[in-house]
């Protein structure tokens, strides 16, 4: 993939892939331009997907798939309930959850990072944020896994069969979320869903379907990507052993290291858009109504933007990577993802004097997600 990106950035930075029916964009400046112009590069793909009630309902509150002005309404409302202060207050709870998960493996000389920490940590945090009962949490992992199953990625736009299969999972998620929202309307608590139910901007509130879509988005967007990032941190530490030593010696370097892992192993490789008009990108004219894949993972290695882009440098500054997006859709969960991963890595480095990747690593085979879905580790305890 990286060799392909390098070749394409050089020779065909904007290229038409007739077989896949998409246009690829590879350079940092062009990717940024695509993401910065939602009027020309839309996030609404409903015209490409077969209509399906459950999918439509799921998408109604999914701000990732909305353009202005609906996007602004949803984002303003959910931002009110999902502020940096709300996220910062979660830190002590994230510490406790990470400790509990690692305590369960105390003294073990091996663990499987995804099942034991990287997946349950973000799922538990999001579920707590949403006020969802602990016993229901295993379902989320299952839902998330089915929606990003490899077959969903043979094409970036789901075909009829795939849409039907997704609809089955979405129906289950929609019903569950609706029930949860109704309970919260009847008896509000301190959780995010209660806040979303009450949130109001310019006299506008979110309806149940919009909240369902947002909850679904959080469960998916906040889970797989954060899990992938945590596995990517460990894979980078394995590849660059002196970095682990540097981080133990100077933990204040950890936030910079996490940004560099985000750049170096981009968890979500492309962002997808649809052209609303004919548009010039670089030297190419992209017709109206086409799918554009803006490759964040390629932009992050663009030698026009980064000095020594293939060098892993935890002190890189500035580090204008695009792994969390850019423009109006910039990742709403970025502070949470950074916080969770920082706490998890601090705990791992604090507890273990050494870790090494063991046999049996499995990488995501879904196009678009970069990270491990199984990461066995040998541990040495401090
Ligand atoms: C949007 C990446 C974690 C919630 C995005 C986008 C990217 C991204 C690239 C923009 C996509 C686009 O423009 O097409 C990531 C990565 C994460 C992460 C790499 C982890 C390392 C999270 C978490 C949450 C979250 C933890 C919430 C709990 C969202 C939401 C949006 C979004 C709601 C849509 C924002 C909008 O459309 O206005 N994320 N994300 N993400 N992310 Fe994240």
Automatic annotation (TrEMBL):
<dbReference type="Pfam" id="PF00067">
    <property type="entry name" value="p450"/>
</dbReference>
<dbReference type="InterPro" id="IPR002397">
    <property type="entry name" value="Cyt_P450_B"/>
</dbReference>
<comment type="similarity">
    <text>Belongs to the cytochrome P450 family.</text>
</comment>
<dbReference type="InterPro" id="IPR001128">
    <property type="entry name" value="Cyt_P450"/>
</dbReference>
<protein>
    <submittedName>
        <fullName>Cytochrome P450</fullName>
    </submittedName>
</protein>
<dbReference type="InterPro" id="IPR036396">
    <property type="entry name" value="Cyt_P450_sf"/>
</dbReference>
